[in-house]
């Protein structure tokens, strides 16, 4: 994307001074692009209010948002981290399969429907988060739920199967 | 002197037409057939465009949902560096200056970097 080399990148711009103590600490999300993309719709589903708050704060701050909106920014990061944590707790196998598929397929979601369908189902069953694409015309089936697609792999029998999921949830229920 | 005249009863017919059998359908049907093929092709093309639009929408929203998260992380890092710069300036010069006649946050163009690469 960038037409020129980045000259001030993290290897050069080393400044390890932490934020002052009166700023509450927050652990950064720490996930790379493919897992984030895989979880993005669930992050959006749970954290939409925080995200909107933060973006509105930035817009209304007129240039000082970097400092003034840190509180909202921490909420955004914590919320997203909670989604990733929950997905890791309940749907780790499906999540891993999906984001590794994205990693291998140029991060094109249509290339990974066979991994996405079980992942979406698991997240909906366990976390009650649903993937919704806003702005989809009401008279069409959302593209990730279509039985027939031109580009994607339509064959639902090729969907990845995760046999241990049920046993795992049963285990956690038994212990809880 | 008598002139040459056609034979009595006239000349026989000149055969200028070829007696080949006509092949295939009437030309209009070929036009109709091409129209049908083109219509079908454009229909399939339209379906593909619609699907591409939906895929693009999916991609855009996945990014839109992540933007605040990525922006928040970047902003925190920028503020951390900015405050570290201010503290360093206070320590070295005893005062804090502003390069711009404005209170807005400006991403720094230049940055202090350590002389030797640090090990982390």
Automatic annotation (TrEMBL), chain A:
User: Where is the protein situated, by its record's location annotation?
Assistant: Mitochondrion inner membrane
Domain of life, source organism: Eukaryota
Keywords associated with the record: Disulfide bond, Electron transport, Membrane, Mitochondrion, Mitochondrion inner membrane, Repeat, Respiratory chain, Transport, Ubiquinone
Q: Can you quote a single GO CC term?
A: mitochondrial inner membrane
Residue ranges annotated for the CHCH domain, each copy included: 91-124
For this entry, the protein name equals NADH-ubiquinone oxidoreductase
Q: What does this protein do?
A: Accessory subunit of the mitochondrial membrane respiratory chain NADH dehydrogenase (Complex I), that is believed not to be involved in catalysis. Complex I functions in the transfer of electrons from NADH to the respiratory chain. The immediate electron acceptor for the enzyme is believed to be ubiquinone.
Source organism of the structure: Eremomyces bilateralis CBS 781.70
For this chain, the family text in UniProt reads: Belongs to the complex I NDUFA8 subunit family.
InterPro entries found in the cross-reference section: CHCH (IPR010625), NDUFA8 (IPR016680)
Give the UniProt record's GO annotations in the biological process aspect.
Answer: mitochondrial electron transport, NADH to ubiquinone
Q: What is the lineage of its organism?
A: Eukaryota, Fungi, Dikarya, Ascomycota, Pezizomycotina
TrEMBL record, chain B:
Can you list the GO cellular component terms from the UniProt entry?
mitochondrial inner membrane; respiratory chain complex I
Keywords, A to Z, come to: Electron transport, Membrane, Mitochondrion, Mitochondrion inner membrane, Respiratory chain, Transmembrane, Transmembrane helix, Transport
Q: Where in the cell is it found?
A: Mitochondrion inner membrane
Transmembrane stretches in the record are 28-47
Primary site of residence: mitochondrion
Per UniProt, what is the membrane topology? Answer: Single-pass membrane protein
Q: Entry's InterPro entries?
A: GRIM-19 (IPR009346)
Mention any Pfam family matching this sequence. GRIM-19
Q: Is Kinase there in the keyword field?
A: no
Q: Which family does it belong to?
A: Belongs to the complex I NDUFA13 subunit family.
**Function, please?**
Complex I functions in the transfer of electrons from NADH to the respiratory chain. Accessory subunit of the mitochondrial membrane respiratory chain NADH dehydrogenase (Complex I), that is believed not to be involved in catalysis.
Q: What is this protein called?
A: NADH dehydrogenase [ubiquinone] 1 alpha subcomplex subunit 13
Q: Which organism is it from?
A: Eremomyces bilateralis CBS 781.70
């Amino acid at each position: 994307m960038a037409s020129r080399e980045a000259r001030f990148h993290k290897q050069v711009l080393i400044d390890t001074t932490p934020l002052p103590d009166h700023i509450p600490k927050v652990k950064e999300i720490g996930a790379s692009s493919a897992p984030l993309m895989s979880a993005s719709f669930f992050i959006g589903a749970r954290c939409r209010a925080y995200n909107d708050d933060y973006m509105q704060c930035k817009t209304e701050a007129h240039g000082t948002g970097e400092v003034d909106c840190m509180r909202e920014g921490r909420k955004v990061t914590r919320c997203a981290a909670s989604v990733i944590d929950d997905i890791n707790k309940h749907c780790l196998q499906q999540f891993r399969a999906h984001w590794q598929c994205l990693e291998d397929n140029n991060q094109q979601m249509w290339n990974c429907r066979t991994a996405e369908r079980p992942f979406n189902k698991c997240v909906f069953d366990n976390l009650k988060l649903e993937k919704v694409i806003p702005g989809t015309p009401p008279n069409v089936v959302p593209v990730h739920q279509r039985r027939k697609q031109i580009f994607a792999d339509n064959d639902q029998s090729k969907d990845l199967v995760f046999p241990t999921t049920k046993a795992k949830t049963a285990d956690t229920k038994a212990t809880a | 002197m008598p002139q040459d005249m056609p034979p009595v009863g006239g000349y026989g017919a000149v055969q200028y037409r070829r007696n080949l059998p006509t092949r295939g359908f009437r030309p209009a049907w070929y036009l109709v057939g091409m129209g049908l093929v083109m219509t079908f092709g454009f229909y399939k093309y339209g379906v593909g465009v619609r699907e591409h639009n939906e895929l693009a929408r999916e991609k855009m929203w996945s990014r839109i949902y992540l933007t605040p998260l990525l922006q928040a992380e970047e902003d925190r890092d920028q503020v951390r560096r900015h405050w570290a710069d201010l503290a360093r300036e206070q320590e070295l010069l005893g005062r804090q200056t502003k390069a711009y006649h404005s209170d807005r946050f400006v991403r720094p163009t230049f940055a202090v970097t350590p002389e030797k690469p640090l090990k982390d």
